[in-house]
Amino acid sequence: MTAKKIILTTFGSYGDIHPYMALALELQARGHHPVIATSELYREKMQSAGFDFVPLRPNLPPPAEQDQEMMDKVMHPRSGSGFLLNEMLFPFVRESYEDLLEAVNGADLLLTHPITFAGPLVAQKTGIPWISSVLAPASFLSAYDPPIPPFWQWMRHIELLGPRIVRAFFNQVKKVYKNKTYNDFRDELGLPDRGSPVFEGQHSPTLVLALFSRLFAQPQPDWPPQARVTGFAFYDGRKEVELPRDLLNFLDGGSPPIVFTLGSSAVWVARDFFHESIAAAKMLGRRAVLLIGDQRNRPAEALPAEVFASDYAPYEVLLPRACVIVHHGGVGTTSQGLRAGVPTLIVPFAFDQPDNAAHAARLGTSRTLPRGKYRAARVAKELRKLLEESAYARNARTLGERLRAENGAAVACDLIESFMQNDGANEHLGEELTYASGH
User: Which of 15, 10, 11 is nearest to 349 (CA)?
Assistant: First the structure.
């Protein structure tokens, strides 16, 4: 097909950014012109990867420059989501809209991330063909597969009440989850109320890309009928696949280590995570790699020879060399851990992380430990089960092989091109595309 200009919006941590970079890379390979619209702090990352970039407000400083109090509020298990939405995103929806409205001028398609709330407004106002996307099953708020929030642990059992009761509960949640700033701006634009921007309002009426694998979560009866599961969209980077020489030497110098990582968001509220991790590795007599994110997280004690600390390392190269991976449950890290074919211990902090942990646990590849119980002795106990009970490693290897056979970015771009060829009508998209590349 002829080359198209496609605007991809996203916002958040690397787990939110990398899938859209994967789509952009695939679109480029097909001759299209993708433009990534996201926070200014990712300008250098996008441009060094060879992508056209448009900054979207709000303008946030890099995490390393943000005050600790703000990061604590964002990552708070009970109130973090509300703080992010009501203090950092909704107050800037007008500015985001202005930036995105200018970006879509002359574009052929808009693709939106779940919390780029200006995107649906721009699509409705301009009439530009619009595809939405989700990164994790929690975004669908299914009554048949209820998400597990970080603050209501009793919801692990809510599905026992049945879909009708769960749906009624979710409907009550939606009623109180509104934002006046957003609603007032939507009314100012003269647009109809199409539901909460956090819930049903985020979804395009014609095509929703579920950028995760069917192996991770099966479609449910109450998902939007226009949703298509693509598989995870992995971005393996340009110029980002080299391990630091000293880390490579460490890996080559002994047995596979336990890798401890908190991604690019939870790492800023690590507290005692790495200290307890070192102690747990010592108890097990295992080597360890700590991805500390920033030198402020480097443990005060001198590291033993069996422990290596690095600010960052590309997951796709490092994780397959681990014996176990310990992480926070962000969907990006979760998907990379599953693809690596290595057992995982997930320690959820906030947002969709407990739900991602639950989905991983169902696969028989992972165990979950609440953040409040992350103490060396308990960590060692959980890790010992993952290391000594052979089913975890066996299941992880099998799942990893199946995920590596998928190509979520390619399937998503097949759907995008089919959508554009049919002028945005989804009745011709073809369910068979959902099963491409191993689905």
Answer: 15
How far, in Å, CA of 22 to CA of 235, rounded? 4
The pLDDT tens digits for 261-314 are 998 888 888 999 999 999 999 999 999 999 998 888 888 888 999 999 999 899
Q: With contact defined as beta carbons under 8 Å apart, do 89 and 71 qualify?
A: no
Contact 365, 395 (CB under 8 A): yes
- Closest Cα to residue 264, out of 45, 27, 23? 45
CA distance 95 to 118: 9
How far apart are alpha carbons 281 and 259 in whole angstroms? 10
Could you give the CA distance from residue 430 to residue 411 in angstroms, rounded to a whole number?
12
Q: Say whether 246 sits in a helix, a strand or coil.
A: helix
Question: Residue 46 and residue 389: Cα distance in Å, rounded?
Answer: 42
- Maximum distance among all Cα pairs of the chain, rounded to whole angstroms: 64
> pTM higher than 0.70, yes or no?
yes
Q: What tokens does 307 get? A: 């422990």
Between 129 and 79, where is the model more confident? 129
What six digits make up the tokens of 404?
A: 């590596």
DSSP string, 59-113: ----GGGS-HHHHHHHT-TTTHHHHIIIIIIGGGHHHHHHHHHHHTTT-SEEEE-
pLDDT tens track for 100-152: 999 999 999 999 999 999 999 999 999 999 999 999 999 999 999 988 877 55
Residue 245 CA to residue 304 CA, distance in Å, equals: 19
Determine how many CB atoms are found less than 10 A away from the CB of residue 407.
Answer: 20
**Distance, CA of 318 to CA of 393 (rounded, Å):** 17
Burial of 306 per CB tally in 10 Å (0-12, 13-18, 19+): middle
